[in-house]
Amino acid sequence: MPPPNALLKTLEEPPENTWFFLACEEPARLLTTLRSRCRLHHLAPPSEPYALAWLEREVSLPQESLLTALRLCASAPAAALELLQEPLWTARQQLCQALAATLASGDWLALLPILNHEQAAVRLHWLASLLVDAQKRQQGITLVSNPDVWPLLEQLAHSLPAARLQAIAHDVCTCREQLLNVVGVNRELLLTERLLRWEHYLQPGTVLPVSHL
């Protein structure tokens, strides 16, 4: 019996005097039959100032780094603290450095070594957040997810035309979803194809997909 059906049977016929507490980051992805048998309670993260104060007591890093980690983790302080540890934080810094070098060279395939990793989905999330921040800067918005790399955001915003930036950001999110949901996908081939596509988007005269026009 598949695991969801096994869980459903347990919920339908629970042992006497038993309560189940189920945690789920994305309840919308749960089977409707499971959701219909649960009482949903949303646990909101603490306010950003409160979470930031807690992080400042836990780790000695610049406030911009703490704020970035919080915003990349949807204001969840424990997740932000984990992100700030090695080797995750160093990997993110390396991605930012590699992206800056890519903007200078135009060689998007150079990002493959840093993206082709067991945590590729996490790293694509970081990349997507940088691209979205650059879109914000093109609109004059100052509230961003990555305040610790402001020069990189400005570089992205000035180097990439808005439509091209949007196309790449959309592709990054699509690629991440494929890695998370397609069974047996070849990660290296998928990333290579996407990187070459993004490089092609930036060539003069390239026609973008209809959804980005």
From TrEMBL:
GO cellular component: DNA polymerase III complex
Chain segments annotated as coiled-coil in the UniProt record: none
Superkingdom in the source lineage: Bacteria
EC number: 2.7.7.7
Occurrences of domain DNA polymerase III delta subunit C-terminal (ranges): 88-200
Enzyme class: transferase
Any GO MF annotation of the entry: DNA-directed DNA polymerase activity
A UniProt-annotated Pfam family: DNA_pol3_delta2
Keywords: Nucleotidyltransferase, Transferase
Gene Ontology BP annotations: DNA replication
SUPFAM superfamilies, per the entry: P-loop containing nucleoside triphosphate hydrolases, post-AAA+ oligomerization domain-like
Domain DNA polymerase III subunit delta' AAA+ ATPase lid: 46-85
InterPro entries: DNA_pol3_clamp-load_cplx_C, DNA_pol_III_delta_C, HolB_lid-gammaproteobact, P-loop_NTPase
Protein name in UniProt: DNA polymerase III subunit delta
Organism field: Klebsiella pneumoniae
